[in-house]
Design brief:
- The protein has 16 helices and 26 strands.
- Strands 6, 7, 10, 11, 12, 13 and 24 form a seven-stranded mixed β-sheet that branches.
- The longest helix has 19 residues.
- It is elongated, with a radius of gyration of 27 Å.
- By secondary structure, the chain is an alpha/beta fold.
- It has three domains: 137 residues, Protein-Tyrosine Phosphatase, Chain A, CATH 3.90.190; 175 residues, FAD/NAD(P)-binding domain, CATH 3.50.50; 149 residues, FAD/NAD(P)-binding domain.
Length: 555
């Protein structure tokens, strides 16, 4: 073997044989990086064969294949990340060692001058004079970050996709951009508002859920530039990518309702859609001995379309159990035309509407809230098309805010006419940019925007992204699955599971859980099983019941 020591932590070599791996390990190397594409030369060992031999010898292995003369900034960043993460010292190879040395040199250029780098490479036999200009361009202070896969958003969809990608391809260069310092299990906030969960149990530090091996840039996105395969950050930096996965979530537009931002959290105005006000919902419910309680739902789309009425059911259940249901006048104001969009679940829900004596007001959209006066204004369209405004006094009001795509999405080339990221509903691939995928709340799909939907979408997107990286077509399809566990009373849930077109897609046989009827087992699933499934399965790439089948729509 022709091993050349570049630094104390990295040596390079021309192509090696599988039989060389035990000797390399015996020489003290703890990791191996191959920069040679498979099939480049007859008789060349495959990356999989090298991985198996390296791991059998007790060494870590990464495959970062590059083509001479076509090394990208993404390749450089991925190589640098591997060097930083892998046990030292590292042994790298390609056909002659030049590509490995070039990757090292370009990575070094971010912190050192080009002259010293070229001299160091030349000292071990590699003349890199052909990239001297590029080395100068990579000088310290360069505003460009790069990665193989850029994931925008570290919510449920983004983290789950990263974990799934790494499950299928360890060592993949993934960068996640998200400014948040904490990660929230948002489906739990309805339960906080019903006095079942503690708010602190629904959040964790973002660093705790970030998959191992992923780089996290704590920053906000300003703009997408898919023509250049770049994203611009608000601090002025740019991120170059090979593949983009957009999972930026949804914007809660509190300001769209006049007076709501000023009133929220005071004078009986609450919402389970915020971490800090969900506990207030439960306090207001407990304290209300009589009067009028309003519950609102804005026009679609919104995240978890069942959440506004879940708040009503859990509140009504408490007042029913305390013998106050006759003293509290419950009104549900829904901007839409129906209680729930999938008719099979409506009979069970209507039974609880009747039980809690709730008055249903369809086509009634909240437009203003006056907290100190405890009044709400609703816009209602009459049969002849006229819009009238109605004032309702309240003692308590639970508000679901209108929701739109984030600002930087709505103004981007990725957006459709409605402002959502334009994707094929089956593959979740962008309709105009082949190396862009989107999932979660911001994607322009007609499914319910729920965490359950993101859980099903993430492994599909991951496998499709990897296929496109390998020059293939996306093999997996999404059937629109979403789940809405409607908490109709403490201890029982109507488990709505459905896909595109309202097709019922139950996970369990009806003898176990009949989703069209209230179920104690579904309550157990929601209250006891789903939180650990979220934290320890979905966010860790463990795809229980959601692994996609290739060539068909997801099961």
């Amino acid at each position: 073997m022709d091993i050349r020591r570049l630094t104390d932590t990295l040596s390079v070599s021309p192509q090696i044989a599988l039989s060389d791996l035990p000797e390399i390990a015996a020489a003290g190397y703890r990791s191996v990086i191959s920069n040679r594409p498979d099939g480049e030369e007859a008789g060349q060992p495959t990356a999989r064969e090298v991985r198996m031999a390296a791991e059998a010898a007790g060494m870590d292995f990464r495959h970062i294949p590059v083509t001479g003369g076509a090394i990208s900034d993404v390749d450089v960043t991925e190589f640098a990340a591997a060097l930083a993460q892998m046990p030292k010292p590292v042994f790298g190879f390609c056909r002659s060692g030049t590509r490995t040395t070039t990757l090292w040199a370009l990575a070094e250029a971010k912190t050192r001058n080009s002259e010293s780098i070229l001299a160091q490479a030349k000292a071990v036999g590699y003349d890199l004079g052909g990239i001297s200009e590029r080395l100068h361009m990579h000088r310290p202070g360069s505003p460009v970050l790069s990665c193989t896969v850029l994931i925008v958003g570290a919510g449920a969809a983004g983290i789950a996709t990263a974990a799934s990608l790494l499950k299928h391809r360890p060592g993949l260069g993934i960068l996640i951009v998200d400014p948040s310092e904490r990660h929230a299990y948002q489906p739990g906030w309805t339960m906080v508002g019903g006095g079942i969960f503690k708010p602190e149990d629904t959040v964790r530090p973002m660093s705790d859920v970030m998959p191992e091996g992923v780089r996290w840039e704590k920053a906000s996105v300003a703009a997408f530039d898919p023509e250049k395969n770049e994203v611009q950050l608000k601090d002025g930096r740019r991120v170059a990518y090979r593949m983009l996965v957009a999972a930026p979530g949804i914007k809660l537009d509190w300001a769209a309702i006049d007076g709501l931002s000023e009133s929220l959290g005071h004078n009986g105005v609450t919402s389970n859609y915020r971490y800090d006000t969900a506990p207030l919902t439960w306090r207001l419910v407990q304290d209300l001995k009589g009067g009028r309680a309003l519950f609102t739902q804005p026009p679609m789309p919104i995240k978890c379309a069942g959440a506004p009425q879940k708040a009503m059911y859990l509140s009504g259940d408490h007042w029913f159990r305390k013998g106050r249901i006759g003293s509290v006048a419950i009104e549900f104001h829904n901007a839409g035309p129906v209680l729930f969009g999938v008719k099979e679940y409506v009979p069970a829900l209507m039974a609880y509407v009747d039980k809690y004596r709730a008055a249903l007001n369809f086509g009634s959209r909240l437009v203003a809230v006056d907290g100190p006066a405890k009044t709400a204004i609703f816009a209602r369209t009459t049969e002849d098309g006229a819009v009238i405004h109605e004032k309702r006094d309240f003692d308590m009001i639970h508000v679901c805010p209108p929701q739109v795509a984030p600002d930087f999405v709505r103004t981007s080339p990725l957006a459709n006419a409605g402002g959502w990221i334009e994707v094929d509903e089956a593959t979740l691939r962008h309709k105009r940019f082949d190396n862009v995928f989107a999932l979660g709340d911001a994607a322009a799909t007609s499914n319910a925007k729920t965490a359950a939907a993101a859980r099903k979408q993430a492994p599909i997107v991951a496998e499709n992204v990897l296929a496109v990286l390998d020059g293939k077509e996306p093999p997996c399809q999404y059937d629109g699955y979403g789940s809405c566990p409607l908490t109709v009373e403490r201890g029982k849930i109507v488990l709505a599971e459905f896909g595109y077109g309202g097709k019922l897609l139950p996970t369990f046989p009806t003898w176990m859980i009949d989703g069209t009827k209230p179920s104690s087992l579904a309550w157990y699933l929601k209250a006891e099983a789903l939180p650990p499934i979220y934290w320890y399965a979905m966010l860790k790439g463990r795809e229980w019941l959601v692994s996609p089948r290739h060539g068909t729509k997801a099961a």
